[in-house]
């Protein structure tokens, strides 16, 4: 994959789940560094960490801005 093809543009302001996932995948593959993510997108360390945690737990659905509440076990 050519560098930069899968990444959202630097002026991205609307972070939909697929754009967040593209940044996380680029980080994982080494296409971009954490420092580049902070500089390019103006994200905070806290925000990036939250994306990583949400993606690890719930996958792409965890990156959505509004998520349906998870059902508790035992509820119908």
Keywords:
76 residues, mainly alpha, 3 helices, globular
Question: How would you describe the overall organization of this protein?
Answer:
With 76 residues, this protein is mainly alpha-helical. The chain has a domain at 17-63. The chain is 46% helix and 0% strand. It is built from three helices and no strands. The longest helix has 14 residues, at 45-58. It is globular, with a radius of gyration of 14 Å. The model has no long low-confidence stretch (mean pLDDT 86).
Average of pLDDT: 86
Strand content: under 5%
Radius of gyration: 14 Å
| Order of secondary-structure elements | HHH
Number of helices: 3
Main pleated sheet: none
Structural class call reads: mainly alpha
General form = globular
Total strand segments: 0
How much helicity do the residues have?
40-55%
Report the uncertain regions.
none
Kindly report how far apart the N and C termini lie: 45 Å
């Amino acid at each position: 994959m050519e560098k930069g093809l899968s990444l959202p543009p630097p002026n991205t302001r609307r972070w939909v789940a697929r754009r967040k996932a593209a940044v996380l995948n680029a980080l994982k593959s080494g296409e971009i560094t954490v420092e580049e993510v902070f500089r390019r997108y103006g994200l905070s360390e806290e925000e990036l960490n939250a994306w990583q945690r949400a993606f690890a737990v719930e996958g792409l659905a965890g990156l959505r801005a509004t998520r349906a509440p998870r059902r508790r076990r035992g509820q119908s």
